[in-house]
Amino acid sequence: MDIRHLTLADFDERIALSEFAFQFKLPPDRRETELRYFRPEEHLGAFDEQGKLLSALILLPFRVWVNGSSMEMGGIAGVATWPEARRHGCVSRLLHASLAKMREQGQTVSMLHPFAFPFYRKFGWEMTCERKKYELEPRHFPAKRSAPGSVERIAPNTAAVSDLYAKAASRYTGMLDRSEEWWTRKRWTMPGLLALYRNEAGEPEGYIHYQVENRVMTVLEWVSVTEAARSGLWEFVGNHDSMIDRLLMTVPMDDPLPFLVADPRFKQETHPYFMSRIVDAEAFVSQYRFASGPEETLLIRLQDAHAPWNDGMFRMALGTDGKATLSRAEEESAASVTLDIQTLTALLLGGRRPGLLTEAGRLCGDSELVGLLERRVPRYETFLMDFF
């Protein structure tokens, strides 16, 4: 089996594999678009001895917000295998090659949307993003409050909303730090209307991207960076009450709407969504923002069966300003914490607290060391609006 990047000559076979695996047919205009944006260096394939494509995935270069910092991230997507090549280790080989490639490219984090959580957990990915889905009737909308600003429908416009998005996205771990191309190719290709809230001074403070069809309003994206923007946008949504019977929207797990409305008994569902993985623990820790405190040192026995550069004994040195380093440690010590790469990912990317991970048997160490992690790992929320 040969693992290599695809070439332009492999494009047709790659599309055929995707169409079969994901059961769709690419229209001619979409095929032309995909060809125009086809970057062979982002596609890895497993080939047999005759050069036939057996399995493939896409390794997308992204940036992601992690505890207020924007980091390089490798997004894995489009994982597909022909039926006759399944259960022959193709995807395993591709994932191992992807980890090495991401490390080489400085992508310390990886994310993916799994077809099955247990499958990717075997390779070190862990669930980090959950979301809530709401289904409301107009009677559930928040009571109207007189917002001082105004809402205007505008044409899809990255310049008008990108700063608002970045301000909101940076509050959550897991949100994409979107590129201009991502706005153009992914956000604005979705049909819908864009409404912008401005305060009394004319400054934008929020927006919604939405559709109205068959008496259902679907909110594709809601961003409000002030309470006035939230109220103003809800007033705007409420003005559709004569033409809609339901409102559908997806929100972060910490969304306060049930508390803010008179009747919180509307349909709310929690959905596990994306998985993440720390690709290079040493590089990742050097970019991560820990809580400030005294200078402290922690020995960590880290286990990673699929990325040997992460496997072994490490010393974490935490500075007073929250900056830290992780480096190989020669000494063995009983005064250390033991965890695998999934658990480290859950701790630093998934919002799981050290105490919970200890109780679950995922993190082993004495109470003093667990207490150190409780103090220095900041509390944060996770969310992801996008899909790839």
From TrEMBL:
Top enzyme class, one word, equals transferase
Which GO biological process annotations does it have? aminoglycoside antibiotic catabolic process
Name the Enzyme Commission number(s) assigned to this protein: 2.3.1.-
Task: Give a GO molecular function annotation for the protein.
Answer: aminoglycoside N-acetyltransferase activity
Zinc among the record's keywords? no
Pfam families to which the protein is assigned, alphabetical: Acetyltransf_17, Acetyltransf_9, SCP2_2
Keyword annotations from UniProtKB, A to Z: Acyltransferase, Transferase
Taking every annotated instance into account, which residue ranges of this chain make up the domain N-acetyltransferase? Answer: 1-148
User: Per its UniProt record, what PROSITE patterns does this chain match?
Assistant: GNAT (PS51186)
| PANTHER family the UniProt entry points to | N-ACETYLTRANSFERASE EIS
* Name used for this protein in its record: GNAT family N-acetyltransferase
